[in-house]
Amino acid sequence: MYILTYLVEAITSVKANKLRTFLTSAMIAIGIMSLVGIMTAIDAVQDSINDGMSDLGVNNFTINDLTRRRGAFGKKFTKKSTITFEEIRKFKKLLPVEGKVSVNTTISGSVEIKRLSKKTTPNYGVVGIDEMYLKNNGYSIQKGRTFSSVELAQGQNVAIIAEDVFNALFNKNEEPLDQTIGFYGKKYRIIGLLEKKGGIGEGDADRKVFIPLINANKFATTRTLNYVATVNSTDPRGVDYAMGEARGILRTIRKDQLGKPDSFEIKRSDSLNSEFDQMTLTLRIGGVAIAIVTLLGASIGLMNIMMVSVTERTREIGIRKALGATPTAIRQQFLLEAIFICILGGVVGSFIGAGIGNAIAVFLDSTSFVLPWVWMIVSLVVCVIVGVMSGYYPARKASLLDPIESLRFE
């Protein structure tokens, strides 16, 4: 009952000093907003990536070139062991485990695609693929069709474009099928348009042009191509067995010596998630550090405000004590004022931070909306702690004032 009375008195005091309360709450809100905003953006992006990875399935693993780094006297040297086109084709034929194997190679991730008088910015990708790539990587056809077996075998100049390519080169209601696009001095006929894939960590999945793998291999005369195999294992013995079989076959094909490490890299799809978790952990730590610094400044400001409040209300405190208020009652009233101001700023900062975090995630092409209830609750708990820490000393000072001296204060 007494607590409710003190709370009403605290709210009345806060309403009597609206500008001061607003400025103090704003400092708290900024700290909470930075914490909740960063965590919301990270959670939304991570959900989007997890959704994208679920399209691939948990039984996927990839095989690609190995990059070795050797350090000496602070210097790093990189040596690449390139998997050739013939090696990756032979691997696909010899893999005995039941599964779906797709092979792809990226010609470039910074290509300018042209059509008539229109052209894209030079940050689009051209990828050579086989018959399984689109399915294994979660793409869906919106218009047209996929590559035929003849087009794949002969390496014809045909292409399937992603949605951002269409938006850059065509008008909204224009028909893209059987139209011609060009890059690197070659012309390609469009046979398919993909649905928007979105997601983060997909290497700009909607900014790509796909061509037959055999056709892409023709570019190997002017540049080094890196071939990647993705295996979607459906073998009942599990993905670990499939990875073991794949490793053994590719070691034989590449003539890796017994006892020597692999000359290639093999990685499960769930290991990509764990790597991203490590990166997001660093971002989370950074977000918490920013919030702590901001809240530390806000708590010092709040303590200063409460000290000023004690000074301004010295006569009021003397009157309360003269009427029988105990030091505990005075201390609780001032503590509740500090906590109320912090919670007010925390609630506002939490909702603004959640909105900003989701806006950042949308800017990064995330399709997930996250309302971080856990972080919002944590923020409110932090606000209470900050309120107690900032308000205790002024509240204690107020409770120890001598009532007679307080009544003489002008």
Automatic annotation (TrEMBL):
Coiled coil: none
Record-annotated ABC3 transporter permease C-terminal domain positions: 289-399
Domain of life (superkingdom): Bacteria
Domain spans labelled MacB-like periplasmic core: 21-221
Keyword Acyltransferase carried by entry: no
Transmembrane stretches, start-end: 21-42, 281-305, 338-364, 370-393
GO cellular component term of the entry, any: plasma membrane
GO molecular function, a single term: transmembrane transporter activity
Cellular compartments annotated: Cell membrane
Record has Transmembrane helix as a keyword: yes
Membrane topology: Multi-pass membrane protein
Keyword annotations of the record: Cell membrane, Membrane, Transmembrane, Transmembrane helix
Family assignment from sequence similarity: Belongs to the ABC-4 integral membrane protein family.
Name of the protein in its database record: FtsX-like permease family protein
